[in-house]
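User:
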Amino acid sequence: MIIGMMLRKLPLQLAIMALALLAMDQAQAQRGRLVIADYSVTTTTTQLTIDGVVVNTQPAAGVPPRIQLAGTQLKRIQLLRASDGSVLASTTLMPDFALDYLLLASGDGQTLPYKLQVEASVGVRTRLFNASRLLGEAPEIEVLMESDDGSTAVRAAAGSLSESLTADRVNLGLRFRRASDGTTLLHLKRADFGRNGLARDVLVVLHGTQNELKADEIGISDFNPYVIRSLPSLALGTVQVKLLNGGALGSGPAPMDFDIGGQSARLEYGQFSSTITLPEQGTYELCAEAFRGITQFPLISCGTLEFEGGKRYLAISRSFFPNQSNPPPALLDPLPFLAYETPDVAGNNTRVRVLYGAVAPRFIELLSVGADAGGEPQLLDSPGIAQPAQGSGAVTLLDGAPERLDIKISGDYGTRNLADLAPFTPAPGSAVDAVLIGDGQLFPYRIVSDAALDEELVVDSRYGGFWTIDEFALEGFNLTPMPEQDRLLGTWFKHGADDRPQWFVMDSCASDPGSAQCAAPAAFHSGTVLLRVYQTDKPGSVRTLRDAGTLRIEFSDCTTAVATVNLLGQASQTLHLSNQTPTAECKLAQLFPSGWR
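Assistant: Predicted structure:
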């Protein structure tokens, strides 16, 4: 009541200050706590005691045990063998209720003696506690904990605590090395350490054996005194990387010079490099430069990618605009590079994936991937800008026994064909990555792969024209290609059994008759198309269409083809077709036949 009367008499700002001081007093009264982090290793049961009283050391999931210290007298803390009460390690503590404490237990009683160490939370610090058991090493082996860029480091012997690391832990990764020879023992992922919770005083505990080292983050500050978590680490070892030139500058595709880890490769647009071996896991800068030696200023895009050791990756350049040039350009690609891991395949299974390496057009579109003619299309998402290190846009089409696949990329909710691969059956035990590149505007979408897969022609305008039937001089087809939908439309004039004229319309798409949009594009398979046939009363009529069967055309080129007719209620027929009105593109293809298929 007295406090309430005082607050009513104070101005608002003074009242707020008074409440803050009161809250601080209450927080101080709740301190004097002991957090127990037991990293000791033994084959028998142990007990922790304070002045002879057993302390419960069974924590809740993910939370170290903690107790409230009673009194400020000198306390003896001991680690005992439960079976006989023998003392394994001992220390003393004179508590201060203004502080929180961390009790660190380590050792194995053989190679490393058991140790107990009490640390108070003071200030803003990042330190290393070395609880590791490096097999075959001397007990006094030292470990270096350094910032990811190597600018600052501290060291700690086994069972000891390091000095404070001076680097800003929010923006760094941590690397642990053996002090004697500099060998990397553990590497924490970049920009992840120290972001969980509000702990100001942080201990990174290195524990485990040489082959199974881990690092925990323990905060003992007044803000978050009981936070513990296992920090994510990068796998150790060399890294294998292939590069792909999926980007371009200017008005057309351009060769690019790539540099990563001191190694370089010059690649044409859509070309893959040979395998590049990086010496160890970690973050690498990848740069791609176009038109080297031609322009006054270099046109370079650079970005950082993170790789784990012992793994293989495909790194894709997708930037059309440089982000490092003088003067800087007006347009920058915020995500110039993507990296996809290429995992191993189990046994004789086969893994086939489609990876997103394209540059998104001005209007984002949904891209779907069809695995085969009858498969359900899957959505291929563009990787998010918030995660530039690893590409998230990937669709796995096959992960199992080899089977025939026909991969097609469609846009506009499956109504427009963008890119197409010829049907193929992958070899057992192989991993095939097909990558979509381009932007669909200046640079058409393409699917490329280092597995030497053939791209398939979508419906080609050179197939258009009036096609006569060699077997029936007065009958013929009029074919109209729609390349943007990978769709072929046509009309067919023939004579019936009573010699009366009949008209049919044909559509390679599985849409309803007369639909302006194609519900299932990409009907072509290496020059072969299957058309649905509908009978109508007269040319151009769409009012009385009736399903009449199917017709398959196999184009030898743009002037000759063979049609297999299967009309309902009639025997199958084979017809030989000749194009009587070849397009200009078709005539060019006749003059230069190697350039069109």
